[in-house]
Amino acid sequence: MILASISSVYAGPNIEVKQILAGLTKPVAITHAGDGSGRLFITLQGGKILIYDGRQILSNPFLDISSLVSTGGEQGLLSVAFHPEYANNGSLYVNYTNKDGATVIARYRVSSDPNVAEPASAAILLTVPQPFENHNGGQLQFGPDGYLYIGLGDGGSSGDPSNLAQNPSELLGKMLRIDVDGSFPYTIPPDNPFVSNVQAREEIWAMGLRNPWRFSFDRQTGDMFIADVGQINWEELNFQPSGSVGGENYGWRFMEASHCYEPAINCNNGSLVQPILEYAHTLGNCSITAGYRYRGSKNPKLYGQYLYGDFCSGRIWGAFIDETGSWASTEVLDTEYRISAFGEDESGEIYFAHWTPNDNNGAIYLISQTNKILPHLPLLLLEIQ
User: Fold this and answer.
1) What is the pLDDT of residues 43-87, one digit of tens each?
2) Domain around 138
3) Are 286 and 256 in contact, with CB atoms under 8 Å apart?
4) pTM passes above 0.85
5) Per-residue b/e over 77-91, b at no fewer than 16 CB within 10 Å?
6) What is the CA radius of gyration of the chain?
7) How many CA atoms lie within 13 A of 209 on its CB side?
8) What is the CATH number of the domain that holds 333?
9) Could you give the CA distance from residue 39 to residue 52 in angstroms, rounded to a whole number?
């Protein structure tokens, strides 16, 4: 059971944000290539990936697949992940919805120009039909184990009408884990939890997810944080420790965060993994955006804090483990931005993207600590018992 209490004690660091880029059209992801170049790669929903070299956006896109992508609503080019050996093999992977609305996972190669990917190198690894236009998930991340993790939503509409998130024979509503270094298009890691289970898809690493729009790994511990966008009332943050063997069921649609959804009572038989944090759709909140646990060096007061936000309210929280061993979260900044994504650079500094429905009004901000005195904010404590 999750217990929540409010305290007037302010336990998190004060932060401030600095705009480093403006004039962007619907930015939805921020990442780096891990190749020592220091570049940031900005994914635009319409189908382009741009490079920020530390001074400016380069004039030519790194990759432009706009002609392949369906856009609007929650569809589009949703993220890019660079292979852990990108500096040697030049491989990168993208997640987008195609003209039929299906999710596509594709590999590309960098060209002879390190600032331009080769469009002709496209190789599709996986296509997953989507019954509706929303809840596509969209995040790609390589884990510390070298495998590619893929977050897929429940297929959309409202309330997961076909209960896909709880169906192990379907990929929707799941976290997938595949090996892209074996035979093409991919192989199944031998320790995936549903290997040799004829009633389940072997790609599945975890299930019971509604719309895991963003997730990330702690670069120090390997722990995984999955933010699952809620249905009507609650947003949730799930935690998977680095030692997990997979197979977690995060509850949807039985539960929305720690609350019964379908059925309305007696929804948990004890097998469902509860979120470490949740928050309600109050004060303009509506859609959680997963962030990163700060492991950079420029902001020591932030070290170990997990920073995340809400797309609609613009609030940013810092989560941490308190002296009792429970996760706690406190609001560290209230902004006017639509926070679509957080991202890390190679040194572990954290950024977020501001998405707007209007062209050329999007922006990227860098987060840093501040010694400015801010009003004390309520501390939300959640513990699992």
Assistant:
1) 999 999 999 999 999 999 999 999 999 998 999 999 999 999 999
2) 2-384
3) no
4) yes
5) bbbbbbbbebeeebb
6) 20
7) 34
8) 2.120.10.30
9) 6
